[in-house]
Amino acid sequence: MAKSHNWTREQTIVAFNVYCKIPFKNSNKAHPTIIKYANIIGRSTSALNMKIGNIGRLDPELRKRGITGLANGAKLEKVIWDEFHGNWEELAYESERLISQFQNKTIIETNQIDLTDLPEGKDVERLIKTRVNQNFFRSSVLSAYYQKCCITGIEISDLLVASHIIPWCLNKEQRINPRNGLCLNSIHDQAFDKGFLTITTDYKIKISDAIFEHKENQSIADLFLKYNKQKITLPDKFIPSQEFLKYHNDNIFRG
Fold it and tell me: The pTM is what?
């Protein structure tokens, strides 16, 4: 399926989407995600995998951790990076729209959105975009953590949540930013949302005094207390923002 023509803007945007959805160290031409999207955009798996490496060279968070992409790349990759990195809502929706277009499908079909519970009228389009972007956020966060809870290591996908550090309703600009996300199991997600635990700016788990009040309960000890002051498992990319963590510490954590 290799093509001799240059990469298009549309193909490169989709490649950025794939970069967000696949653990960087796991990217290779035999990876199912690489195979899936290479077929969608009409590129070889080797070409798409190389493009992921080229995009990775632009990621400052990877460089900070000594993880580098390929040394050389095309100018278009930097153009797309500069346009969309930090503009996560637009990246999510535009890339998913293009994926649908490549497949001659609607974005509703591609993202398997159930229309039965959507209201009629002008709000439908907004809600569809919201769900598309939520799906992108979940995929990006969970893949960054290798589909494992960053506290417990639980790796059952149906029990995992892409948990917002700054809540969805409080900061529109950061809703889809993967650095505003943590991969947590559903119990610790609820505890995090309600301030019963937080993650400090040095990435350690801090348990609220409200939990310690129940320290005699063995389940509380097993689920929470044993993790106090332990460091979370950090992702290779999309490391949680210290600024966002500080907000959670200062405004949501119960202390």
Answer: 0.89
